[in-house]
Amino acid sequence: FVLPEIVTDAALQDRADRLEMFGRVGTRAVLILIVGDIEQMRTMLQHVFEGMGAHVRIVETGEDALQAIAQQMPQLVLLDLKLPMMDGFEVLKQLKLRYPKLPVLVLTGYFDESIDRYVRELGALACFHKPLDLPTLQRKVVELAPRLAPTPAS
Questions:
Q1: With 0-12 CB in 10 A as exposed, 13-18 as middle and 19+ as buried, what is 140?
Q2: SS3 of 124, please?
Q3: 30, 55 Cβ separation under 8 angstroms
Q4: What pTM does this model have?
Q5: Mean pLDDT along residues 110-132
Q6: How far is Cα 80 from Cα 130, in angstroms, rounded to an integer?
Q7: Please, what is the Cα angle at 135 between 134 and 138, to 5 degrees?
């Protein structure tokens, strides 16, 4: 398994430059929680977003995600739908019930418009399909960066 190089096309780089450093909100770095059952996907996303200046925490299960968030509130969650035990749909429901303002981007291998609509109805900001288009995902996260203000732990 080879990690991809970080995408640095002109538009993405220009936007990141204007934000000074993607991962900064004020003087604090943005914390992104990545929730997924495939280790290579978690590691690749961690590499990409840490390379852009964010702090990243990775977990494998929905239960671990809820526990991690209770310990330290991230500013963004990247959530896979296919998870062991508690699936991503249930995790998203729980997140929006407990933390309604927490931004969530869903990652899925399912190619069904009804799933895209459903996760948006549940509160996800967007749904990205695997194999992931990393430049598009990175652009979305950079676009969200100004709104990712540190949130309280409760």
A1: middle
A2: coil
A3: yes
A4: 0.82
A5: 94
A6: 10
A7: 85
d(CA 144, CA 63): 26
> Which tokens is 25 given?
């909100």
What pLDDT sits at residue 57? 97
Query: Taking 70 as the threshold, does the pLDDT of residue 90 lie above it?
Result: yes
- The whole-number pLDDT of residue 146 equals 82
Reported for 97-102, long-range contacts at CB under 8 A and 24+ positions apart, including other chains, are 98/66, 98/69, 99/69, 99/73, 99/151, 101/151, 102/69, 102/73, 102/74, 102/77, 102/151
Tokens found for residue 42 = 């978690």
How many CB atoms lie under 10 A from the CB of residue 80?
24
Cα(24)–Cα(93) distance, integer angstroms: 28
